[in-house]
Design goal:
The chain is mostly beta strands. It has one helix at 58-61; strands spanning 7-8, 11-12, 28-33, 52-55, 66-75, 81-89, 97-98, 106-111, 114-119, 123-129, 133-134, 139-142. The termini are far apart. Residues 2-171 form the Phytanoyl-CoA hydroxylase-interacting protein-like C-terminal domain.
């Protein structure tokens, strides 16, 4: 907060994830988890990301003035897959763009005058937000559950038997 004027600044994406991801070592952004508990809609009590959580209302980052892009998708060798999306202001078309109101991962729709958000429950979902974020727009707090082991995705490899990831084995 002191060194960056109360702003979280984008940093270069590392080489974690799929080996062919076009964002690795190329895209600057801030990483946010989008996962929520299915029964409450709140962030999980436990976290693999550390003891502290910066929580910001979705509409501050994702709204009709934002473009949503597909960046990465790979196996976690479980029932879940890891999905990385990019949120950027309109005008940055360098990745496959998703329709913000209709896609399989993360949506933003106006219903009865309110923004409504939905996300896939069968994926570990992260977004990379490409712009600086003013820390006063959110809340920093300690997680209420356990700090889980890291979900390291370094050297992520596709499961050759996965029918979701590999077109050649079942689709």
């Amino acid at each position: 907060r002191m060194h960056c004027g109360n702003v979280m600044k984008p940093s270069l994406k590392d080489n974690s994830g799929s080996h062919g991801s076009p964002t690795s070592g190329m895209l600057h952004g801030i990483f946010f988890s989008c996962n929520t508990e299915f029964n409450t809609g709140q962030p999980p009590q436990d976290s693999p990301y550390g003891r502290y959580r910066f929580q910001i209302p979705a509409q501050r980052l994702f709204n009709p003035n934002t473009n949503l892009y597909f960046a990465d998708f790979y196996c976690m060798y479980t029932a879940y897959h890891y999905v990385v999306l990019v949120l950027a202001p309109k005008g940055r078309e360098r990745l496959p763009q998703l329709d913000i109101s209709s896609n399989k991962f993360l949506t933003c729709c106006v219903e009865e005058g309110e923004l409504v958000y939905r996300h896939a429950q069968d994926s570990i979902l992260e977004v990379i937000y490409t712009e600086p974020v003013d820390l006063s727009l959110g809340v920093l707090g300690e997680i209420s559950g356990h700090q889980l082991m890291s979900l390291s995705t370094a050297n992520a490899k596709k499961d050759p038997s996965c029918k979701t990831c590999n077109i050649s084995v079942g689709r």
